[in-house]
């Protein structure tokens, strides 16, 4: 009971102080990550495999924003905050197009596998 | 035993949230930029040095942005003659969309277009919409507000008066 109460408090506090992540969850092969998170596993899945390059190429996003999303996800300039800003900069239609492209490359969106 | 284990975790957590809250009081120089407004006139932030500036990042598809803009307009109308500068920074892709939004929400302060995200992503790395940044006369960021707000309230008006007089630095 006490643990449940504390967990609820922690979750609520994080939501209230604005720490809720601002991109979306991508999952593949049983693992889930927030797009943009600075994680070595995510780097391998998206960048080493070449997936992100292909995913971005298949979207109608401008070359500039594709370059930003790639640079801040897959290069030495990796930055979670910059990926969030670049994602927020997209229009609702562009966000949908990006998510659709992830799905075409066998990613599941906003689902956390157990 | 359980309490003894949980207390340090909660303590560290509360400390961490406290430091997040105090981030807004840190002083950073506001990065300079050059953007054109919806009438094609160029604006640089450095041009306004010596006067308090409010930057309001918004998009036509962001409802909260549109909802808070009338209160920002009211604040601008109250203090523009005393030196306050308000710059709306829009991140839509085309002028037509912006003009359509401005037909519904009338503002008299300049609305600048950041169509490729140079200012939004690279200079200010905005991670929430709307975001409003208060810059003092020395060009330092003194307050960042995220989420839709009523800017025409006593607290903000007092704060802006302080920025204009140079007391709230």
Question: Which whole number gives the mean pLDDT of chain B?
Answer: 88
Structural class of chain B: alpha+beta
Briefly note the structural class of the backbone of chain A: mainly alpha
Following the backbone from N to C, one meets helices and strands of chain A in this order, namely HEEHHHHHE
Q: Alpha-carbon distance between the termini of chain A? A: 24 Å
DSSP helix fraction of chain B: 25-40%
How helix-rich are the residues of chain A, as a percent range? 55-70%
State Rg of chain A.
15 Å
Shape of chain A: globular
Continuous helix count of chain B: 5
Low-confidence stretches of chain B: 7-25
Indicate the radius of gyration of chain B in whole angstroms: 18 Å
The spatial strand order of the largest sheet of chain B comes to 1-8-7-4-5-6-2-3
Task: Tell me the greatest interface.
Answer: A-B, 23 and 24 residues
Q: What global shape of chain B is seen? A: globular
State the major sheet of chain A: 3 strands, antiparallel
Uncertain segments of chain A of ≥5 residues (pLDDT<50)? 13-20
Note the beta-strand portion of chain B: 15-25%
The number of E-state strands of chain B comes to 8
The fraction of residues assigned to DSSP E strands of chain A is 5-15%
Write up what this structure looks like.
- The complex is a heterodimer of chains A (114) and B (169).
- With 114 residues, chain A is mainly α.
- In chain A, 58% of the residues lie in helices and 9% in strands.
- Chain A contains six helices and three strands.
- In chain A, helix 3 packs antiparallel against helix 4 and helix 4 packs antiparallel against helix 5 (80-89).
- Chain B has 169 residues and is of the alpha+beta class.
- Chain B is built from five helices and eight strands, in the order H-E-E-E-E-H-E-H-E-H-E-E-H.
- In chain B, strands 1-8-7-4-5-6-2-3 form an eight-stranded mixed beta sheet, with helices on one face.
- Chain A binds chain B through residues 2-3, 6, 10, 13, 17-19, 22, 62, 64-65, 68, 79, 81-82, 84-86, 88-89, 91-92, and chain B through 2, 6, 10, 13, 17, 20-21, 59, 61, 91-93, 116-117, 120-122, 125-129, 146-147.
């Amino acid at each position: 009971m006490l643990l449940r109460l504390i967990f609820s408090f922690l979750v609520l506090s994080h939501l209230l102080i604005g720490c809720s992540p601002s991109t979306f969850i991508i999952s593949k092969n049983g693992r889930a990550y927030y797009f943009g998170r600075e994680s070595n596993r995510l780097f391998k899945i998206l960048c080493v495999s070449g997936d992100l390059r292909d995913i971005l190429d298949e979207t109608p996003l401008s070359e500039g924003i594709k370059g930003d999303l790639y640079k801040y996800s897959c290069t030495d300039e990796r930055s979670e905050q910059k990926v969030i800003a670049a994602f927020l900069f997209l229009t609702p239609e562009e966000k949908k197009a990006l998510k659709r492209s992830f799905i075409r490359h066998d990613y599941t969106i906003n689902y956390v596998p157990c | 035993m359980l309490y003894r284990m949980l207390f340090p975790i909660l303590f560290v957590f509360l400390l961490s949230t406290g430091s997040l809250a105090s981030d807004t009081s840190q002083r950073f120089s506001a990065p300079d930029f050059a953007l054109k407004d919806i009438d094609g006139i160029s604006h640089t932030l450095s041009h306004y040095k010596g006067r308090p500036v409010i930057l309001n990042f918004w998009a036509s598809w962001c409802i909260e942005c549109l909802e808070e803009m009338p209160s920002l307009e009211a604040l601008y109308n109250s203090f523009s003659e005393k030196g306050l500068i308000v710059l709306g920074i829009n991140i839509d892709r085309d002028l037509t969309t912006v003009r359509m939004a401005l037909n519904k929400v009338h503002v008299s302060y300049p609305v600048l277009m950041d169509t490729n995200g140079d200012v939004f992503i690279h200079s200010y790395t905005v991670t929430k919409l709307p975001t409003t940044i208060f810059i003092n006369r020395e060009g330092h960021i003194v307050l960042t507000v995220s989420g839709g707000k009523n800017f025409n309230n006593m607290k903000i008006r007092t704060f802006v008066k302080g920025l204009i007089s140079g007391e709230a630095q």
